[in-house]
Amino acid sequence: MSAPVFLADGTSLTSVASGSTYVLDGAEGRHAAVVQRKRVGERVDVVDGAGTRLRCVVAGTEGSQVRLTVEETVTEAAPGVVLTLVQALAKGDRDELAVEAAVETGVDAVVPWQAERSVVVWRGDRAARSRARWVATVRSAVKQSRRAWVPAVGDAVTTPQLAARVRDVVGAGGVALVLHEEATTPLAEAPTPEPARDGAGAPELLVVVGPEGGISDGEVRALTDAGARAVRLGPHVLRTSTAGPVAVALLSERLGRWG
């Protein structure tokens, strides 16, 4: 069984050497020591969210701190293509369910979209609280899926702002795909960007998913006029909580991430 993952909040782990001692404290330390009751000799990983992973063994616990012996420091390369899910706000917790599963299937960033038919509206304090829930959902999914990279959560965008983002992505050599049930091009035949060799300046692959009521014709026109391509996910119409993660999984396979 793979080792559980804990996050080193806001701290780079690149300088932590094999054989050294690392102290996991704060909320993550408490969770490991008090909630999970980690014991001496058990294996855990600590990641910094930016690709560095410490493979560790528990050396001891004291209160809400866990003392770890670092056996290996591993650096995981940045993605050659940044896979971004633009998820329309949805009622209930369907948008958060989509974000959670998308992180587990390999997405690199998520962007909340205030679509025309979104029942939920993010404004003022609610916007801040709702985005904070998405951030917490991403962090939890990162730990569940044992990832070393924490996907970024953008600010909510309107359709004009999203169209501008699509224009920038396509102009920089990326690709934007809009999932639409009436599209004739299958997702499997949609183009993907050429990956960056060293992770620097990686192009973006933007996947846009509408709310439960679907994407309006005006939104489709605005996004395709900006350079996006409308694609069909498959023969069935999926919920907004399902469509994004399925698309991310299929694209991750095409990008060679699941080889």
UniProtKB/TrEMBL annotation:
Subcellular location: Cytoplasm
Main localization of the protein described in the UniProt heading: cytoplasm
Residue ranges of domain Ribosomal RNA small subunit methyltransferase E PUA-like in the record: 24-70
Gene Ontology cellular-component terms listed: cytoplasm
Residues annotated as domain Ribosomal RNA small subunit methyltransferase E methyltransferase: 82-251
Enzyme class: transferase
GO BP terms, alphabetized: rRNA base methylation
Top-rank taxon: Bacteria
Keywords: Cytoplasm, Methyltransferase, rRNA processing, S-adenosyl-L-methionine, Transferase
GO molecular function, one term: rRNA (uridine-N3-)-methyltransferase activity
EC number: 2.1.1.193
Catalytic activity: uridine(1498) in 16S rRNA + S-adenosyl-L-methionine = N(3)-methyluridine(1498) in 16S rRNA + S-adenosyl-L-homocysteine + H(+)
NCBIfam families: PRK11713.2-3, RsmE family RNA methyltransferase
Role: Specifically methylates the N3 position of the uracil ring of uridine 1498 (m3U1498) in 16S rRNA. Acts on the fully assembled 30S ribosomal subunit.
Similarity comment: family membership: Belongs to the RNA methyltransferase RsmE family.
Classification via PANTHER family: 16S RRNA (URACIL(1498)-N(3))-METHYLTRANSFERASE, RIBOSOMAL RNA SMALL SUBUNIT METHYLTRANSFERASE E
Descriptive protein name: Ribosomal RNA small subunit methyltransferase E
